[in-house]
Input
Amino acid sequence: MGSLGRKVLVILICTWVISNIFLICIPEKAAGPIILPIATISLVQTNQTADVSPGATGIVIFDGTVSCVFNSATTAIVSLEATDTWNSAIVTPSALEFSSTNPGAKTFQVSVKAPLYTSHNVVGQMIVTGMVVMYPSTLIGTVQPSDGVTGRIDIAQFYGFSLRCNQTYIESYPDSEVIFDVSIQNIGNGWDTLSICLKDCDHLINRGFRTFLSTDTIDIYEIDTHVVNIQIIVPDHVTSKNEVFSFAVEVTSEGCKMNDESTKISIATQSELLTFVIVEKPKEYDNDDYGYTENEKDSTKSTSFLPGFEAINIFIGILIVILLSRRLTNNSRKRLRKIK
Output
């Protein structure tokens, strides 16, 4: 082998030794291409229902998971953010770390608070979005889905109403009618059906009273108010003065009864006590006697003038005025003559 061949052989051997030393010194994982992290967000529940009845919190919780594909020689940080219809969403935790020692999927929660008394017809929404960054560099990866994941928030219906009567005590008399106006307002957060009935009326019916309700069922929207009339016909044979009669009007939420929601509202059934008292019947006037009672007629007869006497008085008054006028005129003339 010539000198040239030996030189080539030495160069090849040195090249092989150096390349092996380089492969040994550089970690195997660093030899691959740079992989940008890819994070995936998902929700365990995509629909929740908020209880916004009196005394409730209105809070719903969504559970979610995040998984990430990244270069095992680096660390990936996924930041989460949530928005909702009422600007109340809170993400816990708001940042998740993925590394070679902890690469598995991680969980998070989003709490959303719907305001109390929110209408049952409202549908809320919550959206979770994220961003992933690779460390020690600041390269930004991608998050799937790109526009985030969405959760729906329904509003549970609760039932309630207020019952009010401006006048719960009325005075009446035999052979008349008593009318109570009962105002009912729906204070639930949705449409409801209310049933109305009269309670403890047997003692009235047994004595000849008649009772009437303008309606025994009303369909009423939230916040709306409806007035129910209660009419009591008092018989003419009731003669006891200052006798008191009481009964009750009772209102029941049919929606509450049907959905068994009585534990979620303050009023499922309510009664109002109504009372009327029988007083002395007003005296009826006799039209033939010009509306006077017997005593008034007697006193009127003793002090009135005879028929036609009013015209005589007028005539005499006019005559006196004429005579006085003439006398004054004559006196004036006499004074004028004396002056001349």
